[in-house]
Amino acid sequence: MKILMVASEAVPFAKTGGLADVAGVLPKFLKQLGHDVRVVMPLYGSIDQWKYRMEALPGAMGVWMGMIGELWCEVRQCMLPGSDVPIYFIVFDQYYARKGLYNEPNGAGFLDNDNRFVFLSRAALVLCKKIGFSPDVIHCNDWHTAAVPVFLNTVYAQDETLGQAASLLTIHNMEYQGRYYAGLMNVLDIGWEHFNHLELEWQNQCNLLKGGLYHATLFNAVSHGYAAEIQTPQFGHGLEGVVRDRRDALRGVLNGIDYEEWNPAHDKHITAPYDIDDMYGKSVCKHALQEELGLEPRSDVPLFGLVARLVDQKGIRLLAQIFEALMRLDIQIALLGSGEAWAEDFFRLMSYRYPEKFGCHIGYSNPLAHRIEAGSDFFLMPSVFEPCGLNQLYSLRYGTIPIVHAVGGLNDTIYNYDGYFHSGTGFKYYDQTPEALYNTIAWALELWTHQPSEIEGLRRRAMEQRFSWQGSAEQYVEIYKEAIFRKTGRSVID
Ligand code: ADP
Ligand code: GLC
Questions:
Q1: 299 CA to middle of ligand 2, Å?
Q2: What is the mean pLDDT of the chain?
Q3: Distance 341 CA to ligand 1 centre (A)
Q4: Confidence class of residue 107 from pLDDT cuts 50, 70 and 90?
Q5: Do 242 and 367 share a domain, yes or no?
Q6: What is the structure's pLDDT at 111?
Q7: Is 268 a member of any domain?
């Protein structure tokens, strides 16, 4: 199959969250399964094109932006590192040559994000024509590239190169929808007849994700749990009705993780390697992490790690509510994250108040994320909602027992501890209340203090879990085949 992956971020080039892990890693596995897969993303100002030896494609490319007119961009190309998957970068400095991907340094979203990502969506299609690549399926991700299926079904429906292309839209996060003024229809320029309650109109605004959900041949959420949840008002963020209307086209595929990058036996970022049969290195990592964050270097106190974007989704309000109570327990917490100003200020303040018990680093650091996974005993994920979640999967591999709110991908991937059967891979709580979170942490502490052999068992079972990309890639291949069949009536035979 010929597959085009379109995304707003991909590792190792640009990343704000798990979407980048998916867009940068899944294509490599699809390639290994024998498919012709290519990736398209913007060339942001933060990407070092010399380091990746990018080459320019000859000639400029004109992309129609309706009332804005035709915008001319360039395309550069290299391979996804460690693979022979071509990745194309849309070069349009006026939109992309900025440090941030989506936001100003102060956190405010760029005012032209609507145009930036409508442009990306359309440029990806023009690129196919330019290089003569006729994809069987185009895999788009989140609202940023949700306009792709809309264009495919409208302005490109009869196109020679693109008319037969099926589309799959993956929902990594339903909260972000790309909702803009109705006039964005004039930039899309597909005709105002598509501004209706089924397609792009949402409360008199133009909603790109909604348009994508309507037009994609198939769509999927990044876990089965989340696929069910987004059909409800609590998790659908207003689009639950749209999702329910098309639930016959909805699938769930859990993300995998990259076990080359996240493996405590060969992790170049951590102080000492370790694995399931030799855990000594983990205690070295814990000691080093305590020193790095200025915590009291004690091996007998449990260390709870947390690495996340500091936004409401991640449940940090709940954590903030019980924080001082937690600090009265004999535990330590290590936190890495950046995001909303109130949260950054709050956690900074707490680290001044409890320097020996709470270490925090406000910012973004992949190496420190690895060291927190390796050095912690438990990992906190009190997310309000979590479409898949990657950190609990890293934690399992690192023998860092996850404590999670039982939602979405967290609920699908973590088995609750059961002391009677000596089973489970982590601790779950079901009500998103401060008491439930506090009591679950206290439960973990209790076990740590009085039943260390149970902690050993949990750790071992956690480390034996595998969530590989191989399996997820195979599921995506089946979904692509189904999408191609729906779109063209053609069966893909292996
Ligand atoms: P989301 O995509 O909603 O942010 P995920 O759990 O899917 O949540 O993925 C988050 C990814 O981003 C993980 O790989 C995590 O390690 C990484 N990450 C988040 N915040 C930071 C940070 N401040 N520093 C380093 N890595 C981070
Ligand atoms: C989103 C979700 C996260 C998921 C990631 C990758 O950012 O918040 O749960 O793991 O996308 O699919």
A1: 33
A2: 97
A3: 18
A4: confident
A5: no
A6: 96
A7: no
Q: What is the pLDDT averaged over residues 34-59? A: 96
> What residues are in contact with ligand 1 under a 6 Å CB criterion?
17-19, 21, 307-309, 336-338, 364-366, 369, 388-391
Q: How confident is the model at residue 246 (pLDDT cuts 50, 70, 90)?
A: very high
Same structural domain for residues 180 and 306? no
Query: CB neighbours (10 Å) of residue 155?
Result: 17
Residues 484 and 431 grouped into a single domain: no
In this predicted structure, the answer to whether residue 228 has a pLDDT above a threshold of 90 is yes
Instruction: Assess whether the C-beta atom of 255 lies below 6 angstroms from ligand 2.
Output: yes
Please report which confidence band the pLDDT of residue 106 belongs to, taking 50, 70 and 90 as the band edges: confident
Residue 347, pLDDT > 80, answer yes
When divided into structural domains, the chain yields a total of: 2
Does the Cβ of 389 fall within 6 Å of ligand 2? yes
Same domain, 37 and 154: yes
Residue 105 has pLDDT above 90, yes or no: no
| Chain Cα centroid distance, residue 253 | 13
Same domain, 177 and 247: yes
Query: Can you give the pLDDT at residue 326?
Result: 98
Residue 291: domain span: 280-464
| CATH number of the domain to which 231 belongs | 3.40.50.2000
Q: What is the mean pLDDT of residues 365-382?
A: 97
Q: In this predicted structure, what is the pLDDT of residue 493? A: 77
User: Do 285 and 415 belong together in one domain?
Assistant: yes
> Is residue 75, in this structure, part of any structural domain at all?
yes
Whether residue 354 is found in the same domain as residue 404:
yes
- Within a domain: residue 267? no
Asked whether residue 25 falls in the same domain as residue 58, the answer is yes
pLDDT in tens, 327-338: 999 999 999 999
User: Is residue 493 a part of any domain in this protein?
Assistant: no
Asked whether 254 lines ligand 2 (CB < 6 A), one says no
